[in-house]
Design goal:
The chain is an alpha+beta fold and 161 residues long. The chain is 29% helix and 34% strand. A 6-stranded antiparallel sheet has the order 1-2-4-5-6-3.
């Protein structure tokens, strides 16, 4: 479904798995080429060491590359299935304050995806996510591998790849 940046921002803010973990979408960039996210530290996601629970941090990075690619490609006329294929995370420092991250997709990356979807039908690529605390300390490094499949008109929408 194609929606506006504002509608998706509020839908993600109120989406129970993110809301309960205190994951807050601050802003989607124009045309869904970027997103800014805040992970607030609270009693709901604090671990034994008084830092943000690693599962919360991992969950915060999970949906956004897939959402961005889905919205961008739908606006360009593609019917696609997009999901996070794999992910790797490295906790560099404990998240003792709120964490922030920004991801963006360049025009070159979009053009590459379009070309591969038109020729091969399937686009798989790994993208980085870097999270920082409120003091600018680099706390988390992730790699998210996104899978995008060009769906053809004869495929059923319930088929998963």
């Amino acid at each position: 479904m194609v929606v506006s940046e504002r509608v998706l921002k509020w839908a993600m803010r109120l989406y129970p798995p993110l809301l309960s973990q205190r994951i807050w979408v601050q802003k989607f960039g124009k045309g869904f080429t970027s997103v800014e996210v805040k992970v607030s530290k609270s009693f709901l996601n604090k671990n034994y060491n008084h830092s943000i629970f690693g599962g919360t941090i991992f969950a915060a990075a999970d949906p956004f590359y897939a959402l961005l690619f889905d919205q961008i490609l739908q606006r360009r006329g593609f019917k696609v299935r997009v999901w996070l294929k794999s992910a790797q995370i490295q906790y560099l420092k404990p998240g003792r304050t709120n964490l922030y991250f920004r991801i963006s997709i360049s025009e070159e990356e979009i053009a590459e995806a379009e070309h591969i979807l038109k020729t091969v039908g399937k686009y798989v690529k790994a993208f980085p996510v870097e999270m920082y605390d409120k003091n600018g300390l680099h706390c988390v490094s992730l790699i998210n591998e996104v899978y995008v499949r060009n769906l053809y008109t004869d495929e059923k929408s319930t088929i998963a790849y």
